[in-house]
Amino acid sequence: MLLTDQYPGINSKEFKQFLERENIRMVFTAVDAPFSNGLNERLNQTLVNKIRCKINENNKKTAWTTIAQKCVEKYNETEHTVTKFAPKYLLEGENVNVLPLELKKTCTREVLKRDRKLALKNTIKSHNHNKKIFDLHRQNHNFKIGDRVYVENGNRLNRKKLEELRIGPYKILKKISNSIYEIDIGHRKEESNFYHVTKLTPVEVYVGK
């Protein structure tokens, strides 16, 4: 399965045909909702920042692809703040600790299995903590097929000052998941009508304001 945003290059007919031939399912995130794929977005942001720093580090010209590869390697060898282990260690069992060789502990299969379980436990704990904070200000709407809603008008960073904040109302056609709905916006591509619940406002609530 391939989880992706709605970047036009990825969303092309040719690429979709390739995935179909290879029997690979493609799932799109909702429109203007990068947090739908938050882990990848955060990783990309970290890597872009590292690449930017390296490119501007000195006057020596190096291909950005070479710099990107080195940055990815360094990232994989760095202890993660949540899991408390380096990705390379968890994936391959290679001890990338900066300690001298004579001070490094031998990584046995049992130790690696234990550390992977601990990393998963730490990840779940962090996820639940972040969810608790996010849910403090979240308004849950249980929309039904046929409900009419207003949709947030594009990305707020690209919106002009006097443009409408919301457009519609539009009818809900399908519930994709607990967070994603297909809205009758009228876009040709089905996935371009997928919206995250945080982008939707019930007609009665909007009119009431």
TrEMBL record:
Top-level taxon of origin: Eukaryota
TM helices/strands, residue ranges: none
A Pfam family reported for this protein in Swiss-Prot or TrEMBL: SH3_Tf2-1
Domain Integrase catalytic: 1-95
Organism this protein belongs to: Macrosiphum euphorbiae (potato aphid)
Name of this protein: Integrase catalytic domain-containing protein
Gene Ontology BP, a term: DNA integration
Gene3D superfamilies: 2.30.30.850, Ribonuclease H-like superfamily/Ribonuclease H
PROSITE patterns (alphabetical): INTEGRASE
MF-aspect GO terms: nucleic acid binding
